[in-house]
Amino acid sequence: MADRTSPSHIQQRLYGSTIAPPHGNNINHPIASFLRQLQSQSPEHSRQRFGLLAFFISCGILLLLTGITLTAFVLGFIAFLPIIIISSPIWIPLFLLVTGFLSVAGFLFSTAAVMSWMYRYFKGMHPVGSEQVDYARSRI
């Protein structure tokens, strides 16, 4: 029977097999001590540590992608700035035209929706929200 503190038993316990830890039989290696510490804790602590580790890795990756995106945006803006300035006599009226069209379309749509609701309400078709209006009318 092997001693519980023998390197082979520790290898078995740490790695689930007899594969040697990194750097030979060095059981004082930082990875081996980290794994020993993880296994000595309760499963809840291990899950929390793993979740925290996953959180930090995910945040680091997202921070890196944010930095790359921001850098690409700034460099693209710098590269296309002369084209934007030269073509600005076209973009400003186009922007105003599109903004005006979308505003008018939004106002017309909301007016049509309100008129449709009022028509259904006064015809007794009970549109959505008519109960609240009836309750408010009864309170007045």
Automatic annotation (TrEMBL):
Task: Give one Pfam family.
Answer: Oleosin
Q: How does it sit in the membrane?
A: Multi-pass membrane protein
| Stated family | Belongs to the oleosin family.
Q: Return the protein name.
A: Oleosin
Taxonomically, the superkingdom here is: Eukaryota
Location in or out of the cell: Lipid droplet; Membrane
What taxonomic classification does the UniProt entry list for its organism?
A: Eukaryota, Viridiplantae, Streptophyta, Embryophyta, Tracheophyta
Natural source organism: Brassica oleracea var. oleracea
Q: Name one GO cellular component term.
A: monolayer-surrounded lipid storage body
Q: Which GO terms describe its biological process?
A: lipid storage; post-embryonic development; reproductive structure development
Q: Which residues cross the membrane?
A: 52-85, 91-115
Alphabetical keyword list = Lipid droplet, Membrane, Transmembrane, Transmembrane helix
